[in-house]
Amino acid sequence: MATDITTDRLRELAETRTAQGKVLSVFINLDPREFATPPARATEISSVMDEAGRAIRDHGTLTHAERTALEHDVERVRAQLRNGLDTEGARGLAVFASELAGLFEILKLPRPVPHKVAISDHPCVEPLARIGAGELWWLVLVDRRRVRLLAGTIDGLVEVWRQDDDVPGKHDQGGLSQARYQRSVEKEVDDHLRAVNAELQRRIKANRVAGILLGGPKETVAHLEQMLHADVAKCLKGRFDVDVWNSSTDEVLNAARAVLDELTARRDRELQQRIDEGLGTGGRAAAGLNEVLTAVHERRVDTLVVQDGFTAKGTRCPQCGWLGVSAGGQCPADGTMTEAVDDVVEIAVARAFAQDARVRYRPATDLWLEQKGSIAALLRF
Fold it and tell me: So what's the pLDDT on residue 367?
C-alpha cells in the first residue's frame, strides 16, 4: 500500500488559507477491486476531473478571477496525472490545488475514498483525517550490517532510509588471528549500530512519532536497544520478526500489524479513560458537538475523537472563525452575522489539525462515543 499521508502533512494542509482565490480539493477512488488496470484507472481519473470542471462552472458565488484560476488548476492537475504520475500501490488520490495560494499537492492514499470535489478557502482535509489521522510510526529494521527505516501509519508505510555498511563475516581460521579478526568484526558491528542510533537521534528531532518498533535478529535488536539515545529509547514501543533486507513495505506492515493494532487499541482505551475521567470531574474533557466546538474555537483541544460518519450542519463566523450549531444569528464572540455551513464537523476536524491537536476516528458502531454525542475531546486546559 502506498501513502503520502502523515499527521504533519495533514496539519500543514489544514493550516493553509488563501486570502485570494479558492482551493480545489478532489478525491479520486482507485480501489483495485474496481479499477484494476491502468486504462480503467486513467478513465476514472479523467471522469472525476471532468466533474471538478463542472463544479467550477456551476459554482454560484465565484468571481471571474477565482473561476479562471480554478480552471487553470484543473488543467494543471490533468497534465500532472496524464504525464506519468506514479499511482502504483495507491488506493486513492487526494488533490489540492490553488494557483493564487501557491498550493499544488497530489497525495497517494492507502485506502479507497469516495469521489468528492470541494471548492473552499482552505483544503478539505476531513476525508484524509478519516484514513490518515493515525499517528506516525517508525519501523526500524536492522541486522549486523544493514538498516532500513520505514515510516507511516497502520494503513501504509514508505521507506525513507536504507543503508548497507558491508560488515565482513566471521573468519574461518583458528588461533590468535581468528580472535583478533573476530574482535575487529564485532567492532565494525558496534560502529554500524552506533551509526544507526546517531541517524535515528538526528531524525527524531524533526519528527513527532507515536512510537518506534524494531525488527530483525533478536541479538542484534537487543544490542541496538542498549545503545539507543534517550530521545530515541523513550519512543521505543516493541519488537517484531521480519526479514530485514528483502521484505516489501506491505510485508513489513503485515509482520508488524499485530503489534501495531495492540498498541493502537491500548492508546484508544487510555484516551477513552482520560475523557471519561475528565467529564466525571468537570476537568479537561468535552463531549457533544456544542461543547466541542467551543473548545475548538478556544484552541483548547488536545485530542479530538469523532465517530466515523458523523456530520452536522452548523454556522461559522466569517470574521473570527467561531463555530456553532444554531442556524443564523450573530457571532457571540464579535457580533458578526454568521454563515451556514453544510458540515461543521469537517471544519472542526480541520481546525483541530491546524491547532496541532490529534484527531482519532472511532467506528460508527462505537457505543461509548455515540453516548457522548458522537464527538468528544481531551482538552489541554
Answer: 96
